[in-house]
Amino acid sequence: MLVKHRVLVTGMIPEPAIDLLKKNCDVEVNTEGRVLSKEELISRVKGKDAVLCLLTDTIDDEVFQVSFPKCRIFANYAVGYNNIDVEAATRRKIVITNTPGVLTDATADLAWALLFSVARRVVEADRFTRDGKFRGWLPDLFLGMEITGKTLGVVGAGRIGSNFARKAKCFSMRILYYDKKRNYQLEQDTRALFVDLETLLKESDFISLHVPLLPETRHLIGERELALMKKTAILINTSRGPVVDEKALANALKEKKIWGAGLDVYENEPVIEPELISLDNVVLLPHIASATFETRTKIGIMAAENILAFFRGEIPPNIVNPEVFTEKEPL
Ligand code: GLV
To answer: For the segment 143-160, what is each residue's pLDDT rounded down to a tens digit?
Structure first.
């Protein structure tokens, strides 16, 4: 009898993805609804041929050491893969994959949801209404920021950033964007202007972050950058928490140096800077940008397909370290 490949899935992902893996493999799923500790992860990885991991798992050389040489693929259930030491994986010829594309709309949509929530004070006003404080219409009740016709600053014009920018079409906005390289298609489609970060920060009414977490994007937005923004500016972050210096942001919001912020991600998830929690001018979400039924299923299927392709001897479609296959020495 053919021995089935053994796969560890480190969290409860949508069933269609697990079923897809189960058709071909022996699958062990962590059904506990919590992140595995390092020790648990290491003990469960032992003896597996593949791991489908979550962005909350720290996958470093310690994990690769126990998985090596049997387990040669870690398929991340996310587009961002800053939780994985890709260099260490590549050194050991371990394949890393991610899930680009399938969560672009959901993430860009949530960035817009945050922008609207902060600009129009939706969460604050909901709280007020539930608290029984609504005594009738007033001319100055919950005045917020007009969205239509304003200047939108998009930091990072990759898949998600440019999708977010395109969605501004209905709101007649002037779009500024900043990235390492120009996105000519975006410019053509939206008349977005390519500017330096300083210009974007100074001129935008709403600034939305869409960069991956890399050494050069850590604290891309700190005290200096916040000081460059308009007093009426709103900052949205659906990328990765450490892109923003959370303490500096809390301070800027408290001192009203900027008008508001909407955050889906945090520097030390799930811990949140306590100061932020006490402020009304920030909307805080629990890292749910890709959390739609449709998208989370697509992410799971994509991650599972990466693993199945690898088992068939193919290069997985969403490999992030293709050098594993292209380097000279044989696998
Ligand atoms: C979610 O944060 C992702 O990177 O997919």
So the answer is: 999 999 999 999 999 999
